[in-house]
Prior knowledge:
alpha+beta, six-stranded mixed β-barrel, two-stranded antiparallel sheet, 9 helices
Amino acid sequence: MIKNYLKVAVRHLFKQKLFSLLNIFGLAVGIGCCVLIALYINHEWSFDEFHAESDRIYRIWVKEDYGEGEVYFNTVTPIVLKPTLEQNIPEIAAATRRYAFTDLVKRRDKQQSFSQPIQMVDPGFFEMFDFKFLRGSSDQLFSAPGNVALTPAAAQRYFGDEDPLQQTNLIKIGQHYEPFTVTGLLEKPPAHSSIRYEMLIPLSNSQRMFSSRAQTSWFNVAAETYVMLDESASSADVRGKFA
């Protein structure tokens, strides 16, 4: 019975070749589009899920309301926000900051400099996020302000095929170049990570870039602030305590 149905179907396809071709082509395009859309949605919804505690991690947003419809939202926050949250909201189990900027970087023994995205992070950055070191460790990175960790791509840019560890490059911090020693090689962030980096240095270097007033002012925003809540805490309860 099935064999006869198949024979009739094949004859019908060859009898109306153009109509059959258009239908098959349309079906193939439709299936292909559905597959691509499904892959795109799966990729978008998988962002940052590789962190073990992703369901407890939140990024703090700033809402600036100047009245008359002038309301702005921003992901950069005051530097003083992190210690204030840790001291006043017990539901916050951990907090960390990330400050991104772009400036010039070069090898100590070379004249050529590169415009390089750089990020300053707290020691808690690697405790909250599951980014991995290929060589070195977070303890080595944060053992001194003048340390830096690079991805393989950044290490290749500045040191070629040489071993990057313990090499020195110069990073422009504020108005001057400062020496930084490479103490770690970082794994490149996954494609589905909202945090991207090539070069990380300790956030303690922010003291060279910002005045002591800016470090404690609520009106100077610079770093992104992330918090991880206790397992029993809810974001709604924590949000209510921000005032």
